[in-house]
Amino acid sequence: MKVLSKKIETEIIVKNSRFINELFICNSQTEARDVIKSQKEKYQDASHVCHAFVIGKDAEVLGMSDAGEPGGTAGRPMLDVLKGSGITNILLTVTRYFGGTLLGTGGLVKAYGDCAKSVIEKAVSENAIEELVEKRDFCFSCDYSTYEIIKRQLKDFVIYEIKEEYSDCVTVKAKILAEQFETFSARIKNFSGGKINL
Question: Which pTM was predicted?
Answer without folding.
Answer: 0.74
